[in-house]
TrEMBL record:
It comes from Fistulina hepatica ATCC 64428. Residues 97-239 form the CRAL-TRIO domain. One of its GO terms (molecular function) is phosphatidylinositol transfer activity. InterPro entries: CRAL-TRIO_dom (IPR001251), CRAL-TRIO_dom_sf (IPR036865), CRAL/TRIO_N_dom (IPR011074), CRAL/TRIO_N_dom_sf (IPR036273), PI_Transfer_CRAL-TRIO (IPR052578). This is CRAL/TRIO domain-containing protein. It comes from the Eukaryota.
């Protein structure tokens, strides 16, 4: 079944169905796969979509993969959603990549109380951009991440519509990427909101959601890889945008470029294994002294560097 899907997208005559650029300025005009799409269509990517369709048929996986190929173009992953475009959403640190769980998966923190912008499409674009950066930080053999959401402190909760859109994106276009969803400090008034959302959550995703877990006691995170405060970890982290943001952008770009170079050396085509172009000796350049003095933990090519203040 995997070979049937791979052969479909490896066909030299393959064209993406139902794709039309919305504007003349679109960065992608043709129907053939561009380099970024071939890179995305890895051996593991095909496997994730087969698992998401419960191995029903090759055609079911192909249909979902093609829907995501079109979505990635239309949503702007290759042109609109850039670091410069989403940076205004990032200035307060409402979404942070920090630490590994005990399975080596990068932690993706969401802190709604730090919301700094009015509701707009860019808020969801920022979430997608951060999710892509989390994927950049996944080591060999790692395909998913823990989502850590702290709903404590006063802040503007996302709207029902935005939550549905976020859930739809995760379920339809990032299947098998959510390892766990850990939610703490749910205010009483939000319980009803969450109950409204649950019918839109597929059963597999629903099983991954945990409310108010003790992530250290349950062995989900080691204390030295977890933020302090509400999460109970040993890492006192203060978000400094002027330091964290350029480091995140630079180091993820360096890692992605390194992987892309290896992928090209392996043939640069559909179906190459992520495991083969990722290696244990991947290392980003050392953080400069200014960065090391600014934070205790910061994302690097292995996701985080521990530095002495």
């Amino acid at each position: 079944m995997h070979k049937r899907v791979l052969d479909h997208f490896s066909d030299p005559e393959y064209k993406i169905p139902k794709w039309e650029p919305k504007t003349e300025k679109s960065a992608i005009a043709g129907l053939t796969l561009i380099e970024q799409e071939k890179f995305w269509l890895s051996y593991e990517c095909i496997s994730r979509y087969l698992r998401a369709t419960k191995w029903k048929s090759a055609e079911a996986a192909i249909h979902r993969l093609e829907a995501t190929l079109v979505w990635r173009r239309e949503y702007g992953l290759y042109d609109l959603i850039t670091p410069e475009y989403v940076e205004p959403e990032a200035t307060t640190g409402k979404e942070i990549l920090f630490g590994y769980d005990t399975q080596g998966r990068p932690g993706f923190y969401m802190i709604p109380s730090r919301q700094n912008t009015s509701e707009s499409p860019r808020q969801l674009h920022y979430m997608v951009w951060m999710l892509e950066r989390a994927i950049d930080c996944m080591e060999q053999g790692v395909e998913s991440l823990p989502l850590l959401m702290n709903l404590g402190d006063r802040g503007k909760a996302p709207s029902f519509q935005n939550c549905r859109q976020m859930l739809h994106i995760l379920q339809e276009h990032y299947p098998e990427r959510l390892g766990r969803a850990l939610v703490i400090n749910v205010p009483f008034l939000l319980h009803a909101f969450i109950k409204l959302m649950m019918p839109f959550v597929d059963p597999i995703t629903r099983e991954k959601i945990r409310f108010n877990p003790d992530v250290i006691k349950e062995g989900i995170f080691a204390k030295n890889e977890l933020m302090s405060g509400a999460w109970g970890g040993a890492c006192d982290f203060e978000y400094v945008h002027e330091e964290y943001w350029p480091a995140l952008v630079r180091l993820c770009e360096e890692r992605s470029s390194s992987w892309r170079a290896r992928w090209k050396a392996l043939g640069g085509t559909v179906g190459i294994r992520e495991y083969d172009y990722k290696t244990d000796d991947d290392r980003a350049p050392s953080l400069d002294e200014k960065m090391a003095n600014a934070v205790t933990h910061i994302v690097d090519a292995e996701l985080l560097v521990q530095a002495t203040p």
